[in-house]
Amino acid sequence: MKDDRLYLHHMLERCRRISRFIEPGREAFLSSEQLQDAVIRNVEVIGEAANAYLRKPEAAWRHSIGKRSAACATSSSTTTSVSTLMKSGT
Predict the structure, then answer these.
(1) What is the pTM of this model?
(2) Beta carbons of 59 and 76 less than 8 angstroms apart
């Protein structure tokens, strides 16, 4: 079993990457498939690490994990879902 701090480190590092990727703004994000794919992949990694770290069904993160799962469910709706998450600030 991995040290729990490793999962937290992965989540924090991926959040930092996403912050850098979306820094240019919404229009830059929406006009670049490469940026969208990078953000989506990092959200997936955050979700995977969170799932591994928080296995309890009553965990407070369940809502956020569900958002990640919904955002990554299908490639056709992923861009819309991620841009909706960006707009809402969550």
Answers:
(1) 0.61
(2) no
Tens-digit pLDDT profile for residues 19-51: 999 999 999 999 999 999 999 999 999 998 888
Give the total number of structural domains in the chain: 1
What is the spatial distance between Cα 12 and Cα 15, in angstroms, rounded to a whole number?
5
Distance CA 69, CA 31 (A): 23
Alpha helices in 23-32 (DSSP H): 26-30
Domain of residue 35, residue span: 4-88
Cα dist. 2→6, 15, 19, 29, 70 in Å? 7, 20, 26, 34, 27
